[in-house]
User: What shape does this take?
Amino acid sequence: MTSTPIADLWPTLPGGADARPEAAYRLLQAAVESFAERGFHATTTRDIATGAGMSPAALYIHYPSKAALLAEISRAGHAATLELVRAAVAGEADPVTRMRRLVEEFTAWHARARTVGRVVNYELHALPEDAYAVVAALRLDIEREVSDLIEAGAATGDFEVAEVRIAARAVTSLGIDVSRWYTGRSSETPEELGRRYAELVLRMLGARV
Amino acid sequence: MTSTPIADLWPTLPGGADARPEAAYRLLQAAVESFAERGFHATTTRDIATGAGMSPAALYIHYPSKAALLAEISRAGHAATLELVRAAVAGEADPVTRMRRLVEEFTAWHARARTVGRVVNYELHALPEDAYAVVAALRLDIEREVSDLIEAGAATGDFEVAEVRIAARAVTSLGIDVSRWYTGRSSETPEELGRRYAELVLRMLGARV
Assistant: This one.
């Protein structure tokens, strides 16, 4: 496993990190940085290849186009987030404990992985149709996990929520927007911010904490 | 006053809407659409001029560059939001009533003006330094209005908040992110969403509503 940030953020790339040639990681990393800085449309395959220290021809060995790179970044980013959400909500703990864990980890991920987070959330419109369908399905799964947990908490009387769908949207939205505003100069560490946000969300859901 | 969406969204352009030639509105409108769709860096002045039904030369009569257009959009968008926030928090009403009004209007604005909202919030890094300074000052004023209101509510015992700064950040963040996910196919009107979000925010702030 390489020690690039991409590998750290996405230990779950298909086949496991070890299955990926290091060059592919360098390309993903360079693509994330270019897309985040200049946007997808203003980035060329040459920009990405140069950022990864390769020739454009070498890029094409790994990915057929910059759209394929965006698709892979977006899919892997969403898959990692879904996995994080599923791990957080799993287990026998009560809904309050599981929601706290979910918000802490979802928030901290979007602070730590803010550059990836921006690309993954703000360049959706640039995805080819088939890649968009994959990502849309992953997003729906994430929203469903959050909604299901809110409903579980409402059923046990831990939460009191007027509209589950809107509350679930607010929970994910708060976390996602962290990627927009969080910087290395922010006062809280990603983990501290996660703990603060978990308190705010639990109140929002009517939990008596 | 023209009836373009830009004029509707920003009735407060400097000198009032009537002071602006209609061509400048068409350019602002075309720039917002191009920046939102393709990003600032991939948009050319020719794209904007064409979108406004003009020649590039005609564009330069009004704005010296595409950066000047972005600066004007960003400044005016932030100024309009600050004005909306100030109007909402003003008056003699109790902090709960003022916060409810603020969240309702801030949320509804970001749903209605979502295309402008995306440009204003996601293209900050592309602003020239002097334009960025103007916008940063406006953002600070917006955050301060929200923080001051939370502090006022904490002082009267209407709110109970562990960290005012983080709570204020969460309140603005929830509203801003609406521009990312809201579409014309969303189930709620901008006003309905504003009312739902106001309920969630008031709970988050520990108001007994």
User: Anything to note?
Assistant: The radius of gyration of chain A is 18 Å.
